[in-house]
Amino acid sequence: MQILKLLEVCEVYQPKTIPKKDLIEDGKYFVYGANGKIGRFNEYNHSEEEVLLGCRGSVGSLNISEPFSWITGNAMVVKPKSNQLLKKYVYYFLLSLNKKNIVTGSSIPQITRKSLETVEIPVPPLQEQEKIVERLDNVFENIDHKVSIYEDEIKGIDNLFNSTIHSIFVQGKDDYSEVFLKDIAEYFNGLTYSPTDKSDSGTVVLRSSNVQNNKLDFKDIVRVSKDVKEKLFVQNGDVLICSRNGSKRLIGKSAEIKDLPEPMTFGTFMMIVRSDKNNYLKWFFKSSVFKQQISSGENTMINQITRYMLDEIKLQLPSEKVQKQIDNKLTKLYKACEDLRQNINLKLYKTALLKKSILNKEFSYE
Which secondary-structure segment (H or E) carries 293? Predict the structure, then answer.
């Protein structure tokens, strides 16, 4: 078996990119980006299926395109130079690589031809490649089937939780009172700061990246030395909302402030809602009712949540007793769903380790 440089046996290049505005909803051919299909277009630039390595955006992701597709420059085509190297074999080999060894750039991660220059690929005879591909196809089909089941289970858990919240907030009962959010809560925009304000010993500024899975995550924090007004320090019970983000789908994600390890403020693209009814409101902000009220339609993606939008929010408010009952019910349901989700995520993690182990064994040539 030969050990050869990847760039010796494969043509590696980035095709021409199509601006998103030029995509055609009912176009004849699929368009592939860094992480798979991103739309359609009426022309194609590749007539054969190709191995695609995400080099921008979803860096390191791997796909095999359908024949007659347009592949954009956010994906790198890795094309064998001869018919003595199978495309599917190349795909599995790339899948076995440690992506950390080929990704460059700290602020904007990417994969370039230069970062692939040192990559070596074992090239056995064609017949052996076919056996390896067949073997991995069979094993991965079973593993991927399990992964699909696990992912469907997580979707089912999320749907249960979301539908339960929706049923509570979509329509109040006769003894509920209709109120505007502005009449029962205060809300504040976050702290404005610049890179020069950052300090290793300053106040922690909570940002959208700190809101993960409906709770706070402190793995990636920023500190600033700037003076912070008292009202802009978050308090236990506040609800932190992402009011603006580069990814529109993340706008509106929220988390309850509790058990802070130290005093903290919040950043420019965040808002806090403060109310003595936040044990009830924190669930409202996770409901589809809230999301529909801050958009012009159920499927509309908004650019930003403003104070004016919150002023116009209406909700059905039950008695204090019922608010507590709802909070207790949803807290227990959330805990049960979170336990199930963590159990399934552990299974997904183990399947990912299993796939990696199988690939490492298959392509080990030391």
Answer: helix 288-293
